[in-house]
Design brief:
233 residues, alpha+beta, 9-stranded mixed β-sheet, 6 helices, 20% helix
């Protein structure tokens, strides 16, 4: 499509606003400054405005490296919402495909595609989430077996579904835990049920989507088509 139409759809801008943006010389297509709205933009083109990539028109799929101290909601009376980290238009249309606690860091997926996020959050789809966990006390020899069989949590009728625990560094009390549920404070509650305390929690993966090593806390990027499609597999 034409570059001006692309900007209208992607930014929610009017044709006049899009033309002004283009003429400012701050829009590039594949790293080349373009000042004509008639330039053709294909699906493979990378369009940037003021050095930041503009998501293609249509549903948005975003990977955010959430820092500590931000909540996964549109409003909070005590903490910053993670949405303030996004330089996006129509923020009100976006939602989190699985939340993290305010003190938990790592991978958060954000979208405006309800069906796609449902595949991640619905318990029946059993989408895996992998967390790196640092514990206050040593790792019990029986932890892996207990997680594999399910953990009894307070105020829950059924034990958790089988989870996979891998020891990363026993001296540092560091493990990787992969679960397929998303109960309230689940990881912290699972270790608490074993008499241990989570000191720090960091999500590294959702399904086949891993947190990009190039992202710093607070940074984000759009998902690749392969990452988007992986949720449906």
């Amino acid at each position: 499509m034409r570059l001006d139409k692309f900007l209208c759809d992607a930014l929610g801008a009017t044709r006049k606003e899009a033309t002004k943006i283009i003429k400012s010389g701050e829009v590039t297509v594949n790293d080349v400054v373009q000042k004509s709205g008639a330039v053709k933009v294909s699906d493979t083109c990378v369009v940037e405005w003021q050095g930041r990539e503009i998501g293609k028109p249509g549903p948005k799929y975003i990977m955010l490296y959430k820092p500590e101290g931000f909540v996964c909601s549109h409003e909070d009376g005590f903490n910053h919402t993670a949405f303030v980290l996004l330089d996006e238009v129509k923020i009100e249309n976006l939602h989190f495909a699985g939340r993290l606690d305010v003190d938990t860091t790592g991978l958060v997926l954000i979208t405006d595609d309800g069906q796609w996020s449902h595949r991640i959050t619905s318990p029946k789809h059993k989408c895996e989430k992998t967390y790196r966990v640092w514990l206050a006390d040593p790792i019990g020899d029986d932890y892996a077996e207990k997680f594999a069989h399910g953990i009894e949590l307070r105020n829950e009728k059924e034990p958790t579904l089988p989870a996979k625990l891998e020891i990363v560094n026993a001296d540092e009390h560091e493990v990787l835990l992969t679960i397929t549920e998303g109960k309230y404070h689940q990881v912290k509650r699972m270790f608490a049920a074993l008499g241990n305390k989570v000191e720090h929690l960091h999500r590294e993966r959702i399904g086949a989507i891993a947190l990009d090593d190039s992202l710093e806390p607070g940074e984000y990027r759009y998902l690749t088509q392969a990452e988007i499609d992986s949720i449906w597999n």
